[in-house]
């Protein structure tokens, strides 16, 4: 296992066997985003996205929460900012693009492991991941309605593509808490596990994916993203191009050989980090 220096104790990062585990470490504040934690998280997402030794990003929270979103105690100071509306808008746009925007764009599978609630921007962070695993006691809430805000960090788009238009509108307008059982039914959570099984379950899934063919996984993410934006015919064209490129990779030849020889494939682009 290799520990990565994030520049702050509020964010912990470890690399092990192709899995980078990112832990939001403000348990006393339910891992709310802060001026110290959030820039470090942006840097780590960018760094790990380019790290050839990392096949999967696993994001979790310390203690009994995933992320409470923005720190509400600091929100009352927004009106006192000595900046124009235009400057503040542009600043938020940049901060959004380099956090949830960057996370969605990572060409590696990403997993959120929720040891407890995710709210507001914390929910957006979880939804920006490809897969979400949560404990039975976890819940989510958009929460913005309760502080008189409209939403940020892509929450509307991420929620809509996860649960559909009607459910997204309900969850945004009401700010209701959604328990783990309903989250699983809605597709917000892929799996719900007991509290004690979260870390093991999430890491085992991450490890299994990270041991796979990295190029094919990246191409799969491209295909899945295009499916949301392009026509069916355009998606077909993209899939065709990437599949042919995949056949030229040594991973494909190794997988076919391993299948014939009835053994586990040993992909050459898989590197251990410990």
Can you offer a commentary on this structure?
With 274 residues, this protein is an alpha/beta fold. It folds into two domains: 2-210, 2-enoyl-CoA Hydratase, Chain A, domain 1, CATH 3.90.226.10; 214-261. It contains eleven helices and ten strands. The strands form two sheets. A seven-stranded mixed β-sheet has the order 1-2-3-4-5-7-10, with helices on both faces. A three-stranded mixed β-sheet has the order 6-8-9. A hairpin with a 2-residue loop joins strand 2 (11-16) and strand 3 (19-24). Helix 4 crosses helix 5 and helix 5 packs across helix 6 (165-174). Mean pLDDT is 94; it is low at 270-274.
Oligomeric category: single chain
- The CATH architecture classification of the largest domain is Alpha-Beta Complex
Show unreliable segments: 270-274
Domains, number: 2
What features would you highlight for this structure?
disordered C terminus; 11 helices; 274 residues; alpha/beta; 3-stranded mixed beta sheet; 7-stranded mixed beta sheet; 2-enoyl-CoA Hydratase, Chain A, domain 1
Quickly describe the structure.
By secondary structure, this protein is α/β, with parallel strands linked by helices.
Helix and strand arrangement:
Elements lengths: L1 E3 L6 E6 L2 E6 L12 H14 L5 E6 L23 H13 L2 H6 L4 E5 L3 E2 L1 H7 L3 E5 L3 E3 L13 H9 L1 H10 L3 E2 H7 L4 E3 L4 H13 L3 H16 L2 H16 L2 H12 L13
Parallel strand pairs: 3-4, 4-5, 5-7, 6-8, 7-10
Antiparallel strand pairs: 1-2, 2-3, 8-9
